[in-house]
Amino acid sequence: MRTRLFGNTGLRVSEFFLGTMSFGAPDTGTEGLDTHRRVLDAYAEAGGNTLDTANFYQDGRGESTVGELLAGRRDEFVLASKYTGPRSTTDPNAAGSHRKNLRLSLEQSLRRLGTDYLDIYWVHIWDRHTPVEETMRALDDAVTSGKVLYVGISDAPAWVITHANTLADWRGWTPFAGVQAPYSLLRRDVERELLPMAERFGLTLAAWGALAHGALAGAGTAGGPEAGAGPGADTGRWQREQRVRYTLKVVAEELDVPPAQVALAWLHGRSHAVHPILGAATPGQLAENLEALALELPAEARARLDAASDIALGFPADFITTVGPDVFPQDHARLDARV
């Protein structure tokens, strides 16, 4: 596995991140801890270095488990966690992106993870009730203290992220270097605003749900793309998913590889900014998914997957594309655009 730079920073992160949402699940016990350790070891042996967790995964056991697994080797990894999610169900200030929750969440995460700093600290979701100025200043204070090295934001509109980074630029605060968002063959919404923004401003886009929570890891649909939807289903969405999964199945069979590898290879090749987040229940599953790094999809196969999963970009992208030749006829005829 190769490394890339994290946003506009000098931090080296691996092409695929390792998601640890399932680490510390209550029904796994000692056997589960050993499996998680072997998954982590397999990831590191493949050249991976970036671990993704959050303060409320498995009610906090996720961070504690990751901390236990990293004992004695923490500095070998780029360790990332998130806040905003609830620390308590009764305290109204135990959630949100405000200064109080940031400070208490960060201290709690550091204790659980057994470390005195985080490489990356993510805002987990846009908090509409906290001024972005407060969040950015509080994050910068955490960086200044040395407890956080870099910051990012997950699940937020593009305009919020650019607004936050503009404020950071004006005031000398630490800007967001990365964005997290769902991205897969079944969910390409990020191509409307978030991915173009990330590419334009040099941000890393960490893609969660890369296999659509398992929907892209199976064998596809037995009935093909014309299979009927079940009662009460959103017919258009159902038909699109059937079409995508069927096309994925066909391409995988042609290449003689598992569908998950094709889905991950497609995502990995979409943009240099994109880093899929992998979740794996076993070392074998992780190793199989990592083989997507070496899978070169034929142009024709990629085109079929693109067509099957295509979405309408909506206004203004569709409108600008449509009217562009009429508004700028000479540009379209003779202008060499910037690369």
Automatic annotation (TrEMBL):
Keywords in alphabetical order: Oxidoreductase
Transmembrane parts of this sequence: none
Keyword Lyase in record: no
The NADP-dependent oxidoreductase domain, residue ranges: 18-309
Matches recorded under InterPro entries: AKR_Detox_Biosynth, NAD(P)_OxRdtase_dom_sf, NADP_OxRdtase_dom
Annotated Pfam families: Aldo_ket_red
PANTHER family assigned: NAD(P)-LINKED OXIDOREDUCTASE SUPERFAMILY PROTEIN, NADH-SPECIFIC METHYLGLYOXAL REDUCTASE-RELATED
Protein name: Aldo/keto reductase
Source organism of this protein record: Streptomyces monticola
